[in-house]
Structure formats: structure tokens, C-alpha cells
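Q: Second attempt. The first request was missing the SMILES, so the protein and S-adenosylmethionine are both included now.
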Amino acid sequence: MIAYVARLAFGKLLVEDSRSFSSRPSKGSSARLRSCDSGLISVFAVRILDLLRLALPRPRRRSRQRPARGPVIVRESRRNERQRLMADDRDIGNDRRPWTADDRLDAAAFHRNHVAIWTVLEKFLRGKTGDVLEAGSGTGQHVAFFARHSPGITWWPTDLNDHHLRSIAAWTAHENLANVRPPRRIDLSNPGQLAEMNEGSGALLAVFCANVIHIAPWRVAEGLFAGAAHCLRPDGRLFLYGPFKRDGRHTAPSNEAFDAGLRNTNPEWGVRDVDEVAALAQHNGLTLAEITDMPANNLILTFERRSE
Ligand SMILES: C[S@@+](CC[C@H](N)C(=O)[O-])C[C@H]1O[C@@H](n2cnc3c(N)ncnc32)[C@H](O)[C@@H]1O
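A: Got both inputs this time. The predicted holo structure:
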């Protein structure tokens, strides 16, 4: 293209040159010399242009877009990306990555689920004061977000993992939240630890636990329910977020695949059934009061004290 334009420009100059020469009165040898000069220049210029054309990179032709016809084909890479995102929704273990230079971790799933979860919690917490404990807080993003939206509530984040405890503290400091207590190390499989922590705070208004009981042995669910039953005040609630089976069946193929992956990682892990969790609640004096559908085939199970 460049060579073509240059050739045109040069050619134009040469033509104009030759025209100006020919428009001048031609006189013998000087006219021949000029015409000879112009011929030489022309040959020389073409040679330079050829060299230029060889030296310069060829511009790539733009492929014309074809009009859309038939179904859109989802490429394999995009399908894998979708599956990866679906898996991320369930496990912060794989997508943990440093957020900044401090200890804050970022879970991709948080960005997709925190608003939906908050709409359920907020309905119960609105206008109330008291203490809410989060079991298995992970990165600490949920507790930070919820605390920012509920200044009347004191939040108690907990986790087993030291890495996560540091992230929770870093998020609280970053958000400058006065209504979040320092994160505490609690092993949910030990119900005594949850009860022990509560002694200082009085009875809890709520316990919130997201994405924990399927990525842990069943004894963690047992400890959670026993601890919550001990700590909740009479009007308190336990909110449990995650994927669940209904009547022994998975609610979506993605949940089934996720469950198989969990059990493959650890035979003690796995997506729990709503009925078995409800039975565990009953055993601890709690009752399943509400089931709320959440995005990406998750649920929030809400438990309250069983009225005698
Ligand atoms: C998949 S993450 C979910 C974190 C967070 N709730 C969320 O939804 O983003 C599971 C969390 O449970 C914690 N956890 C696992 N076993 C636990 C146990 N026995 N006691 C307390 N926390 C536990 C892990 O350290 C991790 O932070």
C-alpha cells in the first residue's frame, strides 16, 4: 500500500516534471539531457520503491465479517470458562488470590452472591440490634459487606484457617468497620468452641454460614447446629447458604458434577440433602422455617428455634 502510494506520488512528480520539461521550450541537448535525467530518476525511483516494498511489512488484509447464519457456536475455551466460574461459585479454595499488598483475599464467588444473600439477611435484621456470628467467614468479604449495611449489628467473624483469619482482619481494617469484632479461630466440628465464644457476647441474634458444610466432614454440620442451638436467643435464626439436594436428588447437573468433584477430593465431603440437614436441626431443637432460592442453584435454609 505504502509502496503503491509512493509510486503514485513519485509517478505524479515525474509526470509533472516531464510535463514542465516539455512545456519548456526544448532546445537540443539540454532538453535531451533533461529527458534522459527524468528517465534515470524514474528507473531509480521505481527501484527504491521495489526495495521499500520488500523491506516494509505487508499490511494484513482485514477479513470481511460474514453475516451471522445459524446458531452461535460456543467455543470450547468459553465453555470451560463458564464451568470454571460455576466451580468458583462454590469454593474459594481455587480462586484465592492476593487482592493487594495486605492480607485481603478476594473470592470471585463473593461478587456474584453477596447481594442475593444480603437481601435475605437484611429482611430479618432490619431494625434489629444484636450480635451475629459468621461461621467459616473465608475471605471476610461477606462480613465486611454486611457490617457496612447494618451499623446496628455487631458482627463476629470466625474461621479455622489462619490465612483466612488474616484476610478477615485486613478487610475489616480496610473498610474501617467499628461493628466487626476481631476474627476468632473456631473449629466448627467442636461445638464447645462456638458456645465458648458466645459467652462474652450474650445470646446471638443470628448465625450465618455460607459454603461450608459441603466442603467439610458431616461432623462440622453437627458442630454448627449444636453450637448455634446453644447460642441463639429465642427469636434468633440460623442462615445456611450453599448448594443442596432436594428429596435425595440434585437440583442441577452442575451441582451433581460439583458433588462428584467434592467426594472425589474427600469422601467425607459432599452436597448435603435439605432433609438430612433439617433432621439435624430438629435433633438440636431448631426447625427449618424457610427455603429461599438463590442464583446458580444455591439455597438459603433458615432455621429458628422450635416452639415446644
Ligand atoms: C468455601 S469457604 C467459604 C467461605 C465463605 N463463607 C464464603 O462463602 O465465601 C469454606 C470456609 O470454611 C472454613 N472451614 C472449613 N472447615 C472448618 C471448620 N471445621 N471450622 C471452621 N471453619 C472451617 C474454611 O477455612 C473456609 O474459610
